[in-house]
């Protein structure tokens, strides 16, 4: 059914536009240099005003398009004022594009809802879709009219793709492995480009390639554009086959930077070809080296804009709505500026990489989400358009010419030279502390997948100057098809890697023990890696110092900057403060969590229904367990259930989720949620250990003092901080010292990021909404004494699912009465805890730390 | 290489540690740098606060246990040699076992790796993972959505599955048996330390 609908849409799109789509696509771009070849047809004025009645444009065009038009024409000549008019030519451009994207998106829904997602990669699907679409258009109009416009590509499609990649690049890992990335991207790409070019030329001289009329320069040009590997798609496989994050970042970084190298080479060659090889002076060859200037210049432009962007977002507190706009505009401007100076615009990804940290910290949670989604959407649109162009061009025979020699030679050469990765790796491994092993190398060399960029570049060649363009187009299409379809995901690379890997004995399902312990091992390994500091290199310390001293001060909002310092402040907090934190927050909360499993942060996740379902599910299992434990048949089922629970809920080690980069998926805050949960637990337990040691020490002291002071009341340490909190008062008012940076902590930010803030006014009538207050405030956050550097852990800055803090940092805070119910419920379990229950004073730790800082 | 081995003299007990743990000089140097970095006040030893200052650890559900494993029982500080000795557990096993035979079992053997993991569970060091101990670990490692009953049932099942002598606890032998099929060397090795 869906297929039928898609086909119908295709027909509609194709039929509705018998001509002039090239023009339509160029619609918004007329300002840029108009390439003459792109507008071969005169656009007929069939879109004259007429009657369209209630039928949609697409519908009208299906089947009886021509007649309809003629009729419309006649009616138009009939004259008279029409309220409803047929304005096809007016809406044509956006209409066609919208229909295309709609079709592609519908196809994606279909694609991802089906099983074969794992077998057929998405880019395959898009190409196939393009083929179908192209075929339909060809049938409808007999002539292929869609063409990729250079300005469309370079000014709109490319920046969205690279902007997305840059913005989501994990900066630290990237710079840690910069050496390897640069080697692969620059040396590897240059090697590929030159070798492919020269070898193809040699093949031509040898007569293997017969029909193609091209000289060395043309082949070099072709070699350059075909050598850019686009491994982003390979990354999807990486997740499947346990690829370490280092390889991930290397491949990802390479995919970014080699585009830049290819672009530069391409431009240099193009200018050579345009001038004509015979006119190129020897000195001009050295200008090819200018790619260094071009690259460094592009990088600098990116970084400058990153600084400006960070600086601007520092002051956008009052204009939250347009915060995302600033991000997009600055990234885009960075790209355009680089383009303006004909620097490597693709390197403006550094703008995204550099700005990310500061921007993310400055802008509000909602803006962050908007930026994320919009970036992804734009990139996805751009990629879709390119792939559809690819499919369409492949159908139209007039656009390409076949030469078996060229095609087969190219395929062989790109394979062979890609394998040179092994050589580079060998050299690199001599310098790297973490060597790349054989499987990594195989994956890298085999994953030499050519994508949209190569195709776009080849299509943009000037047919007048490069005589062999049509052959090159055909070859590129074949290469892209071949690498995407056969070499890639599911089809061959996954089995290959699996075959290469040490066969894991997974004949049987893992036992529960194995599942638990293996995950534990993962965590152990991650922790030890963190302790041994294998991630960071030495120079990071200098950089972090610089960042802290200058950049952060300049680019981060004062409040954000302060907050991130809290983490360090925590380390330096003196014993007295720490004690008060424990006595007031830590213990009570722990017991609250234990005794009231259904409250605390559990219910505050966004997927409340989900959670409840789960819980029902769980308790059902437990019931069953008691009832049918003896029945052996159901035991298997329960085991399954246990596995299910384990698989769903075991915390994932960091490396697992960090290697998630996909153009079309986002991790949905899973990481942040987990991090926050774990962080809070850890802080709590640390506080407790801290406290227990203190108790021990304290007891010792006390026993020494006993003779002098006589018997002490128990636990005098806990008394002090509780002194100013009145447990009986209905709304507990916690006085807080005024802060000097109150302005930075003012409400707008919190109100925007956080569901509910309790202010003094609201708390005056706490009785009126007893239930809801409890529901919302189930998780008081006092156990987070201080957030780590990334502020995603700050309860009030966290993702959507963050437990809404009941209190914000203001001069006077009210804690809703209903929390006391929770305390009362939890009191029963407090016997085990050494110190008596204390009322919640969630503000205290944070505030005390803050005021200390202030 | 030459320069690094010459500065190995700065590392306390450098030569001896190299012998004992099988680390190369470059590794030791690197680890020593890291050690000095963690040791913020230059005391020459690490306290648990120093470990806790590693921000990533606070996001590791069992991070504190692992930190605890660095400390010998009863001690509150870790000096460089014990730091390295703990890390030696995570060296991948050599393919060509040259040092097999008379020498004591190296820290990176499968057995020692398992023992290290086992001790993380076995908090009271009685040689057994009791139900309570397992439950604690599970509580740390599972998300908040899991109810206490679910945790209990998981712990029960895990013990049932591994417990061969029916003493309601997992001994080291049972622990090892239950993980027989797991490639420990792969799971518990850091490639950097090769």
From TrEMBL, chain A:
Source organism superkingdom: Eukaryota
Membrane protein topology class: Multi-pass membrane protein
Composition bias type Basic and acidic residues, residue spans: 709-722
Keyword line: Antiport, Cell membrane, Endosome, Ion transport, Membrane, Signal, Sodium, Sodium transport, Transmembrane, Transmembrane helix, Transport
Entry GO CC: plasma membrane; recycling endosome membrane
NCBIfam families, per the entry: b_cpa1 (TIGR00840)
Pfam families: Na_H_Exchanger (PF00999)
GO terms classed as biological process: regulation of intracellular pH; sodium ion import across plasma membrane
Membrane spanning residue stretches: 123-140, 152-169, 181-203, 219-238, 289-313, 325-355, 375-393, 400-421, 441-459, 471-488
Record has Protein biosynthesis as a keyword: no
Signal peptide from the UniProt entry: 1-16
GO molecular function annotations of the record: potassium:proton antiporter activity; sodium:proton antiporter activity
Similarity field: Belongs to the monovalent cation:proton antiporter 1 (CPA1) transporter (TC 2.A.36) family.
Feature: compositional bias, Basic residues: 692-708
Protein name per its UniProtKB record: Sodium/hydrogen exchanger
Positions of region (Disordered): 685-803, 828-854
Biased composition, class Pro residues, residue ranges: 779-788
Principal location listed in the UniProt entry: membrane
Subcellular location: Cell membrane; Recycling endosome membrane
All copies of domain Cation/H+ exchanger transmembrane, residue ranges: 102-499
């Amino acid at each position: 059914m869906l297929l039928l609908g898609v086909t119908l849409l295709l027909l509609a799109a194709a039929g509705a536009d018998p001509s002039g789509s090239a023009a339509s696509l160029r619609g918004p771009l007329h300002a840029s240099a108009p390439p003459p070849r792109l507008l071969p047809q005169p656009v007929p004025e069939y879109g004259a005003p007429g009657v369209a009645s209630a039928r949609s444009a697409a519908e009208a065009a299906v089947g009886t398009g021509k007649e309809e038009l003629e009729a419309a024409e006649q009616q138009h000549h009939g004259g008279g004022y029409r309220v409803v008019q047929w304005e096809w030519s007016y809406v044509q451009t956006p209409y066609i594009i919208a229909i295309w994207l709609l079709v592609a998106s519908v196809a994606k829904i279909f694609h991802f809802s089906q099983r074969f997602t794992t077998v057929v990669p998405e880019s395959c699907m898009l190409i196939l879709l393009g083929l179908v679409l192209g075929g339909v258009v060809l049938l409808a109009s007999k002539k292929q009219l869609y063409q990729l416009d250079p300005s469309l590509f370079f000014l709109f499609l490319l920046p969205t793709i690279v902007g997305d990649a840059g913005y989501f690049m994990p900066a630290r890992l990237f710079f840690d492995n910069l050496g390897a990335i640069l080697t692969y991207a620059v040396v590897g790409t240059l090697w590929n480009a030159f070798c492919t070019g020269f070898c193809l030329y040699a093949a031509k001289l040898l007569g293997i390639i017969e029909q193609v009329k091209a000289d060395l320069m043309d082949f070099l040009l072709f070699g350059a554009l075909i050598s850019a590997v686009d491994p982003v798609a390979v990354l999807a496989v990486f997740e499947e086959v346990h690829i370490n994050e280092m390889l991930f970042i290397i491949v990802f970084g390479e995919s970014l930077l080699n585009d830049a190298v290819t672009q530069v080479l391409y431009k240099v060659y193009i200018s050579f070809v345009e001038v004509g090889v015979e006119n190129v002076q020897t000195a001009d060859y050295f200008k090819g080296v200018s790619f260094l200037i071009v690259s460094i210049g592009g990088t600098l432009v990116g970084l400058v804009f990153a600084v400006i962007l960070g600086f601007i977002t520092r002051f956008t507190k009052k204009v939250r709505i347009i915060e995302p706009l600033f991000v997009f505009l600055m990234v885009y401007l960075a790209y355009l500026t680089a383009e303006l100076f004909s620097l490597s615009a693709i390197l403006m990804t550094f703008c995204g990489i550099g700005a990310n940290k500061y921007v993310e910290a400055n802008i509000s949670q909602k803006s962050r989400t908007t930026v994320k989604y919009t970036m992804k959407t734009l990139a996805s649109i751009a990629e879709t358009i390119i792939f559809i162009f690819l499919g369409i061009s492949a159908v139209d025979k007039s656009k390409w010419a076949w030469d078996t020699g060229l095609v087969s030679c190219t395929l062989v050469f790109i394979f062979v030279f890609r394998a040179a990765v092994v050589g580079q790796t060998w050299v690199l491994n001599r310098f790297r502390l973490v060597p790349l092993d054989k499987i990594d190398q195989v994956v890298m060399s085999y994953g030499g997948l050519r994508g949209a960029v190569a195709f776009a570049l080849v299509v943009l060649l000037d047919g007048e100057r490069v005589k062999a363009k049509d052959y090159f187009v055909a070859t590129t299409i074949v290469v892209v098809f071949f690498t995407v379809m056969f070499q890639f995901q599911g089809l061959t690379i996954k089995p290959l890697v699996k075959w290469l890997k040490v066969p894991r004995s997974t004949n049987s399902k893992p036992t529960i023990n194995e599942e638990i312990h293996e995950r534990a091992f993962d965590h152990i390994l991650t922790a030890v890696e963190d302790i041994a500091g294998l991630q960071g290199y030495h120079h990071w310390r200098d950089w972090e110092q610089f960042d802290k001293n200058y950049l952060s001060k300049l680019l981060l909002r004062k409040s954000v900057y302060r907050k991130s310092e809290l983490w360090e402040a925590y380390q330096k907090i003196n014993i007295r403060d720490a004690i008060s934190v424990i006595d007031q927050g830590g213990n009570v909360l722990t017991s609250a969590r234990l005794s009231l499993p259904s409250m605390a942060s559990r219910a505050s996740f966004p997927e409340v229904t989900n959670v409840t379902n789960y819980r029902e599910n769980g308790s059902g299992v437990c019931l069953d367990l008691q009832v049918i434990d003896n029945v052996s048949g159901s035991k298997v089922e329960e085991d399954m259930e246990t596995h299910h629970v384990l698989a769903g809920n075991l915390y994932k080690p960091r490396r697992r989720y960090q290697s998630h980069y996909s153009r079309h998926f986002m991790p949905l805050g899973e990481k942040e949620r987990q991090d926050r949960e774990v962080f809070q637990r850890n802080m709590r337990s640390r506080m407790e250990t801290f406290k227990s040691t203190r108790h021990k020490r304290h007891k010792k002291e006390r026993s020494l003092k006993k003779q002098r002071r006589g018997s002490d009341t128990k636990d005098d340490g806990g008394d002090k901080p509780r002194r100013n909190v009145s447990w009986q008062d209905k709304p507990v008012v916690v006085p807080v010292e005024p802060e000097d940076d109150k302005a930075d902590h003012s409400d707008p930010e919190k109100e925007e990021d956080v569901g509910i803030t309790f202010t003094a006014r609201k708390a005056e009538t706490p009785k009126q909404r007893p239930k809801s207050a409890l529901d919302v405030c189930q998780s008081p956050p006092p156990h987070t004494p201080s957030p780590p550097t990334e502020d995603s852990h700050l309860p009030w800055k966290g993702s959507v699912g963050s437990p809404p803090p009941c209190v914000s940092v203001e001069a006077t805070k009210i804690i809703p009465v209903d929390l006391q119910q929770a305390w009362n419920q939890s009191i029963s379990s407090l016997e085990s805890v050494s110190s008596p229950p204390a009322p919640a004073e969630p503000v205290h730790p944070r505030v005390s730390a803050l005021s200390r800082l202030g | 290489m030459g320069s690094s081995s010459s500065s190995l003299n700065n590392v306390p007990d450098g030569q001896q540690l190299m012998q004992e743990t099988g680390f190369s000089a470059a590794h030791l140097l690197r680890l020593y740098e890291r050690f000095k970095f963690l040791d913020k006040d230059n005391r020459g030893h690490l306290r648990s606060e120093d470990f806790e200052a590693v921000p990533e650890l606070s996001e590791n559900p069992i991070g504190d246990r692992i930190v605890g494993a660095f400390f010998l029982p009863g001690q509150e500080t870790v000096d460089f040699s014990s730091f390295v000795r703990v890390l030696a557990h995570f060296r991948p096993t050599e393919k060509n076992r040259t040092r097999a035979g008379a020498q004591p079992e190296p820290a990176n053997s499968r057995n020692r790796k398992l023992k290290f993991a086992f001790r993380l569970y076995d908090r009271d060091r009685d040689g057994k993972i009791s139900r309570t101990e397992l439950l604690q670990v599970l509580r740390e490692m599972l998300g908040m959505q899991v109810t206490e009953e679910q945790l209990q049932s998981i712990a029960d099942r895990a013990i049932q599955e591994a417990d061969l002598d029916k003493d309601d606890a997992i001994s080291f032998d049972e622990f090892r048996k239950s993980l027989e099929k797991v490639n420990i060397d792969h799971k518990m090795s850091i490639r950097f330390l090769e």
